[in-house]
Amino acid sequence: MKKQFIWGLSAVLVLLTAKGIYAQDTIPIKTLPPVTVTATQKTIPEKVWKNFRKYFANAENPTWYMANKNFLIKFMTDDKLNRALFTKRGSLIYHISYGYEKNLPEDIRRQVKSTYYDYTITRAIRVNEATRLIWVVNLEDAKNLILVRLEDGEMEEVQKLEKS
Fold first, then answer.
1. Is residue 113 within a helix (H) or strand (E), and if so which, with residue range?
2. What is the mean pLDDT, run by run of 10 residues, along the chain of 164 residues?
3. pTM of the model
4. What is the DSSP letter of 44?
5. First vs last Cα of the chain: how many Å apart?
6. What distance in Å separates the CA atoms of residue 62 and residue 156, rounded to the nearest whole number?
7. What does the alpha-carbon distance between residue 125 and residue 140 come to, in Å, rounded to a whole number?
8. Dihedral (C-alpha) 26, 28, 29, 31: value to the nearest 10 degrees?
9. Which domains does the chain possess?
10. Engineered SS bond to 65: which of 19, 72, 81, 103, CB 3.0-4.6 Å?
């Protein structure tokens, strides 16, 4: 009697499990439509092109996009990925450069390491916007990921995540 009960219970569990697996397959997966960035202009205005070349003479492989009425340019310099945004009149709005610890100025690196001495600097991002120079530094140790922002000698911990 006991064996029959166990076999019956096992059969019910197998059927429920199989039904659960099948039910999961019928759940529709929603995906977002692809995003396409297109330019409405075929040519780059001369002022924008001249100022881009003036600011970034050593830029490699520039790719141009329209962002609203501005020009977004993605390009490489040395070993760093860069993004710059220009107005249609050629004024630089911002420049972002994605680098590593070796790209940090020594005083910024020293300031970060004085507080986060047990952490590895995994990314260093430089943001130039108008008269502001901001560094965003990603740090990592065995247990945590930390995002630090530095501007005008002030350092602020923006986010701290615990690794799982």
1. helix 106-115
2. 45 45 53 54 85 95 93 94 96 96 96 96 96 96 96 95 92
3. 0.72
4. -
5. 47
6. 33
7. 15
8. 160
9. 46-162 (3.10.450.360)
10. 72
